[in-house]
Design a protein that fits this description.
Blueprint lengths: L1 E7 L7 H12 L7 E3 L13 H7 L7 H12 L3 E10 L2 E10 L2 E7 L7 H4 L9 E4 L2 E5 L8 H10 L3 E5 L7 H12 L2 E5 L4 E2 L2 E2 L5 E3 L5 E4 L6 E7 L8 E3 L2 E2 L15
Parallel strand pairs: 1-2, 2-3, 7-8, 8-9
Antiparallel strand pairs: 1-14, 3-4, 4-5, 6-7, 9-12, 10-11, 12-13, 15-16
Bound molecules: acetamide.
Length: 263
């Protein structure tokens, strides 16, 4: 069994030290979870004034005090941590997600599908859709609006993902319908770690949730409270792709009928 903790809180845009200490404090309560998942852009906040503003708040993984704190915590608490991270590389900014193991940073994903103003701020992700090892399981990461694109969930399933960690800053309500459907279609676990609060004119919808391979929401947080949502799962349930004794959601696909998808 794998115990997970999704941290729902209210990062504030530009308040790097406050966000850092808030996450550090909340992490002290997650010591018995093997996997902790934080929201999108948890270190920086979301609603930047413009690209210049965003640029002043970004840093690299190597230079980030926030990442150093997570690495130390993951080692001390013997756990894995997924966090949204505001990342700078040269002149480019990426809306990223990191996977930190007890031994350090072992994975990175950069958001591919940029939402609204993000298009003026970030470069589209350029690391593909990698999976990473977490104990005996395979974990992939997607970030918020990525959820709207069924193709990428399916690619993750075909690569053998057991768990998708989904740091989010949701501002609309479709995810509560779409994400469980993707869990059921692909038969894996999804952990959407959302945030609460308001930044300038944007409010976020909370309701952090966890979904099992049947598409059932097995845990859900409130819409507006700081919370740590705990779940215990058997990730190996994701390996059963049969929905009847004769129907397998991956092996029953007929890719030659789907060629229009690449247009
Ligand atoms: C979003 O992608 N943050 C809505």
């Amino acid at each position: 069994m794998l115990k997970t903790a999704q941290i729902q809180f209210d990062p504030q845009v530009g308040e790097l030290e406050r966000n850092h200490s808030k996450v550090a404090e909340l992490l002290t309560k997650t010591g018995d979870a093997r996997l902790v998942i934080l929201p999108e852009l948890a270190n920086s906040g979301y609603n930047f004034i413009d690209r210049e503003h965003a640029f002043t708040l970004a840093t690299t993984v190597e230079k980030s005090d926030y990442v150093a704190m997570l690495v130390e915590t993951a080692s001390k608490q013997n756990q894995y941590i997924v966090t949204g991270f505001h990342e700078k590389e040269g002149d480019e900014l990426f809306n990223s997600s990191l996977l930190i193991s007890p031994k350090g940073v072992i994975g990175k994903y950069r958001k591919i599908h940029l939402f609204m103003n993000e298009k003026q701020i970030f470069t589209k992700g350029n690391l593909g859709l990698p999976l990473f090892k977490l104990d005996d399981y395979k974990l992939g990461m997607l970030i918020c609006f990525d959820y709207f694109f069924p193709e990428i969930w399916r690619i993750m399933a075909l690569k053998g993902a057991d768990i998708i960690a989904h740091p989010s800053n949701l501002v609309t309500f479709q995810a509560y319908k779409v994400v469980p459907a993707q869990a059921a279609i692909n038969r894996f676990f999804i952990f959407t770690a959302n945030r609460i609060g308001t930044e300038r004119d944007i409010s976020f919808s909370g309701r952090t949730f966890a979904v099992d391979p049947e598409g059932d929401v097995v845990a859900e947080a409130s819409k507006d409270k700081e919370e740590i949502l705990y779940t215990k799962i058997d990730p190996l349930k994701s390996r059963n792709k049969l929905i009847t004794e004769r129907n397998h959601v991956l092996d029953d696909r007929i890719p030659e009928e789907y060629l229009d998808i690449t247009k």
